[in-house]
Amino acid sequence: MTQNRVAAISSATTELRVAWDGAQHIDLISAVVSDVFKGTGLDLDDVDFVLDSGSDVLDGRSISNCGFLGALGAHHKEESRIEEDGLWAALYGVAKIASGSADVGLIVAYSKPSESDVNLYYASQCEPFYQRPVGFDHRAASGLQAQRYLTSHGLKELDLARIVARRWTDAARHQRVQIKSVPGPADVLASKNVASPLKSLMMSRPVDGAVAVLLASDHIARRVSRTPVWITGLGSSMDRHSFSARKAGALEACEVAAQRAYRNAGWDSLPKPSLAEVSASSAASELMVLESLGLAGSGRALDLLDEDNRSINLSGGALPADPIMATGLVRLSEAMRQLSYPDEYGLKAPSSAIVHASGGVGMQTHCVATLEV
Amino acid sequence: MTTHVGIVGVGQTHHARRRTDVSQAGLVREAVDRALNDAKLTIDDIDSIVVATGPVLFAAVNQPEKWVVDAIGGSLKPVVRVTSGGGTGLVGALAAYYQIAGGLADRVLVVGYDKLSEGALQYSISTLYDPFWGREFAVGIMGFSAAYWRARMDLLGHTEEAAAMVAVKNRRNAMANPYAHVKKEVTVEEVLKSKPLAWPIKVLDVPPISDGAAAIVLSSERMAAKSTDRPAWIRGMGYFCEADNAPSRSMLLSEPLAIAARRIYRAAGITNPRRQFDVVEVQEPYTCFELSYYESLGLCAPGQAAALISSGATQLDGDIPVNPSGGCAGANPIGAAGLVRVIEAAAQVMGKAAGNQIRGAKLALAQSGGGWANLRGIAVLSA
Hints:
Helix content of chain A is about 35%, strand content about 20%. Chain A has helices at about 25-35, 55-60, 65-70, 85-100, 120-125, 140-155, 155-175, 185-190, 220-225, 250-265, 285-290, 305, 325-340; strands spanning about 5-15, 50-55, 80, 105-110, 195, 200, 210-215, 230-240, 275, 350-360, 365-370. Classes of the chains: A alpha/beta, B alpha/beta.
C-alpha cells in the first residue's frame, strides 16, 4: 500500500469513566503518554512527532492542543491537531512514517465530555441555515437511521436492546470501562426515549478518557516489539452534510472507506478478518456499520450476535463507552490488545483485524484500518 | 523525502473585511474553483481533501469541514480537518504533503479559510488560556505579544521605528496584490503616531481582520505534468511547537521557528538562507513578529533585525525580499493566512505571482505560525 511498512507497537488507555472528575485533561493525557512507552525500550526522546485529536468545543477552549502540549510530550517536536477521531490522526501518522521522513510517532486522543454538553457539540456541527433552525441534530439523525433500519429489515426494538446488553456485558468483563451495573434488554427498553425508536441506553454513552498509540517504522517495530501489529490498509470517506441527500438506509461513506482500506491492504475479496472493533453512535448504527464493512449481509448483522460470534467488539465497542474524538483510536488499541493477547479473549491465533471510527451528525464520516500480525 | 511532491495549482478569494454575499461554504468554493482551474483539474481528479481553519469558535460552526464538504463537491472522498491556530493553513498543506509522500494519494486539495466577520475574534482567542489560571486576565493575544515585543525592544533593539518600517513595506507591497483588501500606504511617522492598542503595538502595527479562503492542489511527481510544467516543488516542510506556558518562555527568539528552520533547512540543503532564498513570505500577526522571524529564520544574526529592515534588504528590490505580497498587512483571514503565504511563495517560483513577481525567483521560503506564538513552521519551495 504505502511506501514503507508501519506498525502500531504499543498503546495505553485510561479507564473510561462517566466523569473523571478528579482529573484534568492534562492528567488523563500525561497518564497515557507515560504508559505507552512501557515495555518498548523507547522514550519521549525517540518520538519524532506527535499528532493529537480532541475537540475545542468539548474542551471549552480554543486551540486546546496548545494548552496540552507539555502533557502530550510534544515540546520542541513536530505536532499537529487533527480535529477528528484519533484514528484519523493515526492515519496521518502512518502516512508520515510510510514516507520515510520519520520513524516513531505518538498518536494521542482524549475526551472529557462530562465537562461539556454533547448534544450541543453535535448540534453546533449542523449548518446554520437549514438544519439548525429546525432543531435537527445527532439524536434526530440517529433516530431516523434507526427507524429506517428496523423497518427495512423487519427488526424490533428488542433486537437493538439485545445488542446493547451484549456490548455492556463484554465491556464489564474486561474492566476498562466504568460500569456500575450491566443493563439487560428489559432495562434498555425501559430507558428514557431519545429519538424514537432509540432509547437512551441504545445511544453510545459519552465517557471521559484518553488513549495513546505508538507507531513505528518497520525496522524500529521489529526491534522493539514482541508482536508488531502492522497497519496494512487505510481508507476514509466523508458523506454529504445534508442528511436528506445521503443514501437512505445505508452508511455509504462507511462502505466507501472500507473498500478503500481493503483495496489498500490488497484484500481483493474480503477474507474473514479474525476480529473487528467498530464505533457506532447507536445500537442501530452499529449494525449498519457491521454491514457496511462487509461483515454481514444487508439486514443480517444481528446474526453475528446469534452465532455467538466472539470476534466483534469484544471490548464492548462504543455503545457502553464513547470517548468522543478518541473512540476510534480506542478501537485500534483494543484490536491491538486482542491480536497480541488472544488468550485473554478466547481467540485462537487471530491474524487480522478491522478497526473502524466515525464522526459527525448521523455518522457523516468514517475511517477504516486493517491490521495484520 | 523520497517522493517528490509539488504544488500544481493555487487559488484565493479577494479577501474582505466582511463578505456578506457568501456563507462559509460559498467562500470556500470560490478558492477551490480557482485552485482547481489553475491546476487544470476538476474535483473528480482529487483523491483527498484537507480542510484547515482557525478555532471553530471564530465562526461558531463546529467541525465546519463537515458542512463545507458539500459545497466543494467532495462528498465520499477522504476529508479531514486539521487545525493549529493561526498556522493552520501550513499545517493543512503539511498533512496533504504526507498523504502523497506516504503513498495514500496522488492529488490532494487543501483549503484554508476563516470568516472572521462572523465571530468575536479576540474573545475567541482569550479562550486559549487555561481556564484555571490565565483566562481571567487574558485579553486576546495582543497584550501578551506587546509584553514580549517590549522585551525584544530592550534586549535586541527591535525598536518601534524598525517595526513601523515593516508596516510601511508590507502595506506598500499590498498595493500591487489583487487579493489584498487593505490598500493604503503609510509612513513610519504615521505608524508611530497611530493609536496605541497595547503599547508598543499600535493600530498600524496590526493586520486587518478578514474573510477569505485559499486553496492549493498538491500532486505527486508522476501526476504533476497534467497540471503544469512548472510546479513549485516542496523541498522541505515542518511545523514545531513549544510547550511551556508563557512565564517560563524567553520569546526573544522563536524557539519552535528556529528548530523548524534548522531541521527543514538541513533537509532542503539550505546552508545560507539569506543568500540562497530569492523570496520570503512570513505570516506577521503584528509588525514586531516579522522582525523576530528574520532572526529565527537566520536571515540575519540575533539582534540584527532592526538593521536588516533599515538596510532595505527585505524590500522588493533588496537582496532578500520579504512579503512582496504585503503579508498579513494586506489581508488576514487567519485560517487561510498560512496557506496564503505558501501560495504566494509558490506563485513566485512558478513565475506567476499576481502582484510583485520577483524576477527569476527559484527558491522561496514560507513561514507560518499560531497559538500563543508557540506553534511555528516553514516550507521551502523551489522551481
